[in-house]
Design a protein that fits this description.
Strands 2, 4, 5, 6, 9, 10 and 11 form a seven-stranded mixed sheet that branches. A four-stranded antiparallel sheet has the order 1-3-8-7, with no helix packed on it. It has no helices and eleven strands. The termini are far apart. About 0% of the residues lie in helices and about 55% in strands. The protein has about 120 residues and is mainly β.
Length: about 120
């Protein structure tokens, strides 16, 4: 099992920045990819960014390219999402997720952390 706990969400003004963290525990040795997803009220959950756990390859949804940076510290079992130039469209609950070996889907999820961007 892998347990994920997000932190770092909060209220920020438009144009501001936040850094989210996701602490992983349990069978972290089995992690292949980790990613961030978000869900705004009344909208479907969407992919934000992902990273190879033991590599450097990253992926971003187009709307956050150039503004968000995903990173990880394997030694600390922690995933990060640096968010810059935030706008109201970034308001959502942000979830971290892990994909383990021998599977094609993200099957471990955190509880989410709220990010609210005010004008």
């Amino acid at each position: 099992q892998v347990q994920l706990v997000e932190s770092g969400g909060g209220l920020v003004q438009a144009g501001g920045s936040l850094r989210l963290s996701c602490a992983a525990s349990g069978r972290t040795f089995s992690i292949v990819n980790m990613g961030w997803f978000r869900q705004a009220p009344g909208k479907e959950r969407e992919f934000v960014a992902s990273i190879l756990w033991t590599g450097t390859q990253t992926y971003y949804t187009n709307s956050v390219k150039g503004r968000f940076t995903i990173s990880r510290d394997v030694a600390k079992n922690t995933l990060y999402l640096r968010m810059n130039s935030l706008n109201a469209d970034d308001t959502a609950v942000y979830y971290c997720a892990a994909r383990v070996r021998q599977t094609d889907n993200y099957n471990y999820w955190g509880q989410g952390t709220q990010v609210t961007v005010s004008s």
